[in-house]
Write a structure and sequence with these properties.
This protein has 10 helices and no strands. It is an all-alpha fold. It is globular and about 40 Å long.
Length: about 240
């Protein structure tokens, strides 16, 4: 990794972590398209590994607040979606990967806008788990759908539950990517080099988030994500 890539990539991760704290949206929604503009090598394995630095902390801190109702069912379908996504990623030509990532970002934005009142019904758990796992394995973006499923929980329970879900799903993603030849020692090293951005984001996000207006920040995430995704698609054509 070149030095300018290191700082640009960790800057994108830091921005995403801070905006996630103020909006509740998954950091991947903004991190993935920005990282892809720096280099496609960061997606999906390295960013998934790096994100575990944050999700692991969230899960451990709130381990007593994790919402376990129907959680095992969600995880089963989430892991099933991960396996399907990992098998499909091998079929995406490298030169077209940017288009696939950009389209998935736009899809995640559309879901976040169109379904703000998603409930944890059985069909939603099945469909949401499969789609979230599939998108996460392909692009590293699965959080928006999961965040919508748990949006009515208290902030503490939301962070703890999503942290636990992300930790399990990230582990499944990395294992699946390994078996399809998309995650190895080099990708692991790139992931470790992205962790400082997540750790700094965890430390600095709370005081910054209190200053930011929640509504405007959410709109900013969706706007920046959309522009970044479109730029990525155009660059990959």
């Amino acid at each position: 990794m070149r030095i300018h890539e290191f700082f640009l990539a960790n800057g994108a991760v830091l921005l995403g972590a801070i905006l996630q704290a103020s909006t509740g949206l998954g950091a991947g929604l903004i991190i993935v398209p920005l990282l892809a503009l720096v280099s496609l090598k960061f997606i999906p394995g390295p960013i998934v590994l790096a994100s575990m630095a944050l999700s692991g902390i969230m899960a451990w801190q709130g381990r007593r607040e994790i919402q376990t109702h129907r959680l095992s069912m969600l995880l089963v379908f989430l892991c099933a979606g991960v396996v399907i996504g990992a098998l499909c990623i091998s079929a995406i030509p490298l030169q077209r990967a940017g288009i696939a990532f950009g389209v998935l970002v736009l899809l995640a934005v559309a879901v976040s806008v169109a379904m703000p009142n998603m409930q944890r019904t059985m069909p939603m758990l099945v469909g949401g788990g499969l789609m979230s796992g599939f998108m996460a394995a392909i692009s590293g973006i699965g959080a928006p759908i999961l965040a919508l499923l748990y949006q009515h929980e208290t902030p503490v329970r939301l962070r703890a539950t999503l942290g636990a879900v992300f930790t399990v799903s990230s582990t499944a993603i990395l294992i699946s990517l390994y078996f399809v030849g998309k995650f190895g020692a080099q990708e692991a090293m790139w992931g470790l080099l992205l962790m400082p951005g997540y750790i700094l984001g965890f430390l600095f996000a709370p005081p910054i988030a209190r200053v930011l207006d929640r509504g405007n920040s959410r709109a900013a995430v969706l706007f920046i994500s959309t522009l970044s995704a479109i730029a990525l698609i155009v660059r990959s054509l």
